[in-house]
Design goal:
Elements lengths: L3 E4 L9 H16 L3 E4 L13 H12 L6 E4 L5 E4 L11 H13 L3 E4 L3 H13 L15 H9 L5 E4 L5 E6 L3 E6 L7 E3 L7 H11 L4 E5 L6 H11 L5 E5 L2 E2 L15 H6 L4 H9 L14 H7 L10 E2 L2 H14 L2 H14 L6 H11 L8 H5 L1 H4 L16 H17 L2 H4 L2 H14 L4 H13 L7 H8 L1 H15 L1
Parallel strand pairs: 1-2, 10-11, 12-13
Antiparallel strand pairs: 3-4, 5-6, 6-9, 7-8
Length: 489
Amino acid sequence: MSIKTRFPPSPTGYLHIGSLRTALYNYLLAKKLGGTFLLRVEDTDQSRLVEGAVENLLTTLKVAGINHDEGPVLNEDGSITSVGDNGPYVQSERLDIYKEHAQKLLDGGHAYYCFCSKERLDEVRKQQQIAKMQTKYDRKCVGLDQAEALKRIEAGESYVVRLQIPDGETTFADEVRGSITISNSEIDDQVLVKADGFPTYHLAVVVDDHLMGVTHVVRGEEWISSVPKHVVLYNAFNFTLPVFAHLPLILNPDKSKLSKRQGDVAVEDFLKKGYLPEALNNFVALLGFNPSGDQEVYSMQELIDAFDLKKINKSGAIFDPVKLGWMNGVYIKAMDHDELVKKTQNIFDEAGESVDSELLSKMLVVEKERLTVLNEMLERTQMYTTTPEYDDEILVWKKSDKADALKQLTDVLVVIESIDDATFSKKELIEEVVKEYISSNELSNGNVLWPMRVALSGQKNSPGPFDMAWVLGKEEAVARLTTAVEKLS
């Protein structure tokens, strides 16, 4: 059987990190099983639409490398077209299809017209809450004569279409949680068609998944409570049930649900900060899924090969920003240098700051070992491009004194001035010359290298003195060492 998965976001804002995981898991499953990955835009809730959200969604998924086989595509000119034969893939363009299926439910006795006002529904809910009852529709309109209902509609009365839940119970299998059974008495008669004529999520998702050939529904666990309603709809239409798999919540370190209140949750925010898409995918893929005990860094192909719905955990997954930073650092270190320079240059351009490309390349050779996100270069660059300001006390090593620091800086300045340009072109050669000077004069590394490094960087904690000298170049290195000597004199 050919399998098909889908990612059906609502264009109500930026792509949430949890939605990225849902999209990624559906992508991995489809590729693992040689199937098709579908993207569908679910915009039936017209009141919550955000302008530009669809374009942002398509752009973010493309940057993340999660490419769909069917669905809307953003073209270079900004227009949106579709690929695949099961479209249109935007729900607001499929209203006639939902209307037709809603009528089938009405004709088959699986749905009914409801004319209850918002005020009445609010009062019913209020009384149920007072009585500590489950809040759901009281079925006032369930036995309404069809002919009478049509007359009221023709007269212009506002109405919705509700699903008529049958007696008994509903059972479905979940690949993550096993078999789940719920009494139908606990299921509300869900609104299927709203007063504005648009379908609700519940009708649209079942109809679309069936007509588009979706075989596996992989989504967040917040949708588990909706599955019984969907199963009732599948049965009413005589549709084949898909395979269900509901993913665990993503939690903050304090075990609360991941939310904007405690930090970034939009994928775009992470990308803007300099997190690499590959690292973000790797990190997100392991939030609730553990392919093996030891390995933590995976290529996309390795994730595809290892993916298995049976290996998804039931319990919530902790979003650890420290681990994400570590993982991003791993990817930065492994990145092709020219690509790293290009990506970092883009960050400077977006921030409206200029930096010499040759200098940036040298800085990244040194700094990439210490980076967790590329945006850190915006601050770290200052150490190389701006004359440092510091108190002369930090030039003195803990096992030395001011007089010794002055002597060592004075002497090492002479050594640096004597190095020719060819030797200064490689940090290893600079290191060789300075260490030979230290060894031949039977000096302590700390006494020489600590004041040298601080003089070049202006900081207690910084890259090593040879890295700093090489990036700065001979002229600037000499100037900074000269300034340090003057500070101590």
